[in-house]
Structures are given as C-alpha cells and as structure tokens.
Specification:
- The chain is an all-alpha fold.
- It has five helices and no strands.
- Helix 2 (28-40) crosses helix 5 and helix 3 runs antiparallel to helix 5 (91-101).
Length: 105
C-alpha cells in the first residue's frame, strides 16, 4: 500500500518545490559582494576601520585589487588580508566587482 502512495506524494509535493526550483543561484559577483560587505559594511558603504567601496571610481578599485594580485609579498604582510582575497579573483570577477561598487570614471 505504501508503495502505491509514493508517486502521489511526489506529485503532491511539486507545487511546494516548484518555487524553489525556479530560484537561480546567486552570481559569482553577488557571492563575492556578500563577502566584501561582511567587512566593508552594507552595500560596501564602509564599516568602522574598513573603507567604503561605494563612491570610489571603478578603475581605482580595479587598480587596487590588481596591485594586490601582482604583489605576492602583500599577501603575507601583517594586516593585508585584502591581498589574499584579490589573489584568487579571476580577471573578469575582479573587474565586475570594481564595476559593482565603483562609479563611472
């Protein structure tokens, strides 16, 4: 008897699962931005000792991230946690994050 009910239970649960199936996973930039916001405050607007990302030019943000990528010693310098984050960014993600937070030149 239980085996005969199983297909009906699966069909009955589809309306509940359908909205979840329609959700798309967050983009790479959205996931990185959430990590950035953890230190740099909501929407990157600054938080205590952490500078604001919003309001800086996108080109300046990209240049700073690139500078941290290009300097392997920066990743081991005390207090330079950003170099460790920048080191693993793909070039297109680096630029997309700079564009996400930055202003037009």
């Amino acid at each position: 008897m239980a085996r005969r009910c199983l297909p009906w239970l699966a069909l009955a649960s589809l309306p509940l699962a359908a909205p979840l199936l329609a959700l798309e996973p967050p983009s790479t930039v959205a996931r990185w931005a959430a990590a950035c916001n953890g230190c740099h405050g909501p929407e990157g607007r600054g938080s205590g000792a952490m500078p604001a990302l919003r309001g800086q030019s996108a080109d300046a943000l990209a240049a700073k991230l690139q500078q941290w990528q290009d300097d392997p010693a920066a990743a081991t310098a005390p207090g330079h946690v950003m170099a460790r984050f920048a080191a693993i960014l793909e070039p297109e993600t680096l630029r997309a994050l700079a564009d996400h937070y930055g202003t037009a030149p």
